[in-house]
Design goal:
With about 90 residues, this protein is an alpha+beta fold. The protein has a single domain, classed as 2-Layer Sandwich (YaeB-like fold). The chain is built from 3 helices and 5 strands, in the order βαααββββ. The termini are far apart.
């Protein structure tokens, strides 16, 4: 079952601000991690956030914050950023 991925406008800007090598890597890239959420929105290593709704998944030093809507099979990417700045 394939889920639809929606990326919010703010997350698109954060994605564009990432270093090109982190986004375009052949494997283990932020882009590949986001696309993999369409197959499994709760992969091994993902964690439910405390204090706000959603999940987070790691990709190197970067974090992807997203929410899952089971009723409509949609994953909504909320924020993308470096681990030291993402939770502020």
């Amino acid at each position: 079952m394939t889920w639809q991925i929606r990326i919010l406008r703010g997350a698109i800007k954060q994605l564009e601000a990432l270093p090109a090598r982190e986004y375009k890597r052949e494997y283990k890239s932020v882009k590949a991690k986001i696309l993999s959420l369409a197959e499994n929105p709760r992969p091994a290593g993902s964690q439910r956030l405390k204090g706000r709704p959603g999940y987070r998944v790691r990709q190197g030093n970067y974090r992807i914050i997203y929410d899952v809507f089971d009723q409509i099979l949609t994953v909504e990417v909320i924020r993308i950023g470096h681990r030291r700045n993402i939770y502020k």
